[in-house]
Amino acid sequence: MKIAILTPLFPPKHLAGLEIAAYNIAKHLAKKHEVHVITTLDERLPKESTEEGFYVYRFKTSKIPILRTISYCIRSFFAVKKINPDIVHVQTIYLALSGLLIKKILRKPYVVYGRGSDVYFSWRFKNIISKPILKNADAVIALTGNMKREIRGICNRDVFVIPNGIDLERFENLSKEDLRSELEIKEENIILFVGTLRLVKGVRYLIEAMKTITDKNKNTRLIIVGDGEARKYLEDLVRNLNLEKYITFIGKVPNEKIPEYMAASDVFVLPSLSEGFPVTVVEAMASGLPIVATTIRGLPEIIKDGKNGFLVEPKNPEQIAEKVLLLLEDDVLRERISKNNREEIKKYSWESVAEKLEKVYLGCL
User: Fold this and answer.
1) Tens of pLDDT along 289-321?
2) How many Å apart are CA 285 and CA 290, to the nearest integer?
3) For residue 127, is pLDDT > 90?
4) Which of 81, 226, 269, 345 sits in a 20 to 30 Å window from 198, CA-based?
5) What are the pLDDT digits (tens) for 176-190?
6) Where are the domains of the chain?
7) Does residue 160 surpass a pLDDT of 90?
8) Which residues lie closer than 8 Å to 315 by C-beta, 6 or more apart?
C-alpha cells in the first residue's frame, strides 16, 4: 500500500506531540508499506529526503496563518497528485481541506486524525470548516473516547479511537543512578515536567505547588524540560516565590534525551488545562514514573486515579502538592504505581498503533 501522510510540521526541528506521532507513524508503517510524508520546509533541511525507510517532501509556505493554510493545501495537493498514493492520511483537522480537495478531484480516499487543539479549541469557522471535512472523510480517528465524543458533536458519524504510541525500547535498561550522576542531580527527590512552555500547560500551578512541597520537604527539586513563549513569565514567577534553589529550567532538549530525564526522576507532573493525548504521559508510564495529572479531556482514560497515578483538578496547586508529597513520602505506594505503569504501557506500542491504522486504511480501500 502506498500511503501519503500530510502533517504541517515534522521533526527534527518540531518535536511536539503531533510531530513526534507523525514521525513514528511513518516509521512503523514504512516497515510494510511505501510511505510519503508531506510537510513544510525548515531552514537547513533538504526539500526531499529519505528517513527511516520513508520519503519526506518539504515546501515553503506563507508566514501569514490563513495564507499558510491555503498554500499548504495547494502545494500538498500537487505533491499527492505526483506521488499517486492509495490513501491519504491527514494529521490534523486544521489541514484536512487538503484531503477534501484531493478526494473530490483526484478521487483518493482520505483519513483524518484528530490531535487535540483542532478538536477542542474554538477557532474561527471551526464547525463550518470541520463538518464537511469530517463528513466526507473515508475514516475519522480520535486519540481518546473523550475526543471521539467531541468530534461526533461536530459531525455525527463513526469515529475510530487509536491512541498515540511509544517506542518502548527507548525506555528499557536505563540506570537511574548513572543518569543522575551524568545529569549532575544530587540526592534529591526529582519532580519532572516535560512539554512546551505555554500557559495552557498549567506549569504556573506546579510552580506554585512547589512552595508547599518545599516547605514540607526541602530535599526536592522540580526540573522543567522544554521551552516556549511562557518561559520568561514562569522564570519571573519562580523568582517572585523565592524558589530558584528548588526549580531548574533545562530548556529544549533532543527527543532522544527525554528517557534519561524520565529515568532520573521520581514523579512526573502534567498540570495542563487542555490536552488531547500527551505523549509525555505515556513516556512517563514507560519509565515507571508515578504521574500526577489534571482531570481534563482524555487524561482520566490514561491515568486511573490511585492505580498508575493521581488526578487533580486544573489550576489547583494545593491538590498537586498534596499528591506529590504523598508519592514522595510513601515508597511502597510509589513502587506499586511504578509497577502498574510498566505493565499498562505495553498496549501503547507504536507497532500496535501502526497495525490499527493499517486496518483502518484497508477498510477505506
Assistant:
1) 999 999 987 788 889 999 989 999 999 999 999
2) 7
3) no
4) 345
5) 887 788 777 778 899
6) 2-165+349-364, 168-347
7) yes
8) 202, 205, 273
Same fold, 2-165+349-364 and 168-347: yes
CB-CB contact of 301 with 318 (8 Å) = no
Query: Helices (DSSP H) in the chain: which residue ranges?
Result: 17-29, 65-83, 97-106, 117-120, 126-136, 145-154, 176-182, 203-216, 231-240, 258-263, 279-286, 299-302, 317-329, 331-344, 350-364
Question: Does the 168-347 domain belong in CATH 3.30.70.20?
Answer: no
311 half-sphere exposure, CB direction, 13 A CA radius = 13
Q: Supply 316's cell numbers.
A: 489547583
User: Is residue 14 classed as helix, strand or coil in its secondary structure?
Assistant: coil
Instruction: Give dist(CA 330, CA 319) in Å, integer.
Output: 17
Stretch 121-130: mean pLDDT, rounded? 77
The beta-carbon contacts of 100-104 under 8 Å, at least 24 apart in sequence, are 100/132, 100/133, 100/136, 101/73, 101/77, 102/76, 102/77, 103/136, 103/138, 104/136
Contact 102, 255 (CB under 8 A): no
- Yes or no: domain 2-165+349-364 corresponds to CATH 2.40.160.20: no
